[in-house]
Write a structure and sequence with these properties.
Blueprint lengths: L5 H6 L7 E4 L3 E5 L9 E5 L11 H21 L4 E5 L15 E6 L17 H17 L1
Antiparallel strand pairs: 1-2, 2-3, 3-5, 4-5
The structure holds zinc ion.
The site of zinc ion has 6 residues, from helix 1.
Length: about 140
């Protein structure tokens, strides 16, 4: 447990949560500020701030469990679509410093807004240069 982490407090039973699922590596509970009924957070049991320190197996479990919850949302009619969303870093919208995956059921005309202002696309050379840099960084991991 990391002190002052609300998700660790929920995982340790010190703070209440409305639990949806639990596995060896991850736990899912409802967001207390849902954007739609069924909005669920999938959280690794082991505290990690974000993607840099998240155990890759825990990350895989977040997606695996998130996928199952999305299917359950569909089956229950809570979702006509689903967004999986993970904010990594404050500029990306992260507010709780324990990595978590949002499973957001969507309905037509809901209040969720995902907005992107696309610039003009780069040319192929620009894409290839960024891809080359990413390949190099991946080799260093
Ligand atoms: Zn934590």
């Amino acid at each position: 447990m990391t002190r002052d982490c609300i998700f660790c407090a929920i995982l340790d039973g010190e703070t209440e949560g409305s639990f949806v699922a639990a596995t060896e590596r991850a736990v899912a509970f409802l967001d207390i500020l849902p954007v739609a009924p069924g909005h669920t957070l999938v959280v690794p049991r082991r505290h990690a701030v974000g993607l840099v320190d998240l155990d890759p197996e825990d990350g895989a479990e977040l997606f695996r469990l998130g996928q199952q919850i999305a299917v359950a949302q569909w089956e229950l009619g809570l979702a006509a679509g689903v967004n999986l969303f993970l904010a990594d870093g404050s500029v990306a919208g992260q507010e709780i410093w324990h990595a978590h995956l949002h499973v957001i059921p969507r309905q037509p005309d809901d209040s969720v807004v995902l907005r992107v202002d696309y610039d003009a696309p780069p040319d192929r050379d620009g894409l290839d240069e960024v891809a080359r840099r990413l390949r190099g960084a991946l080799e260093e991991l």
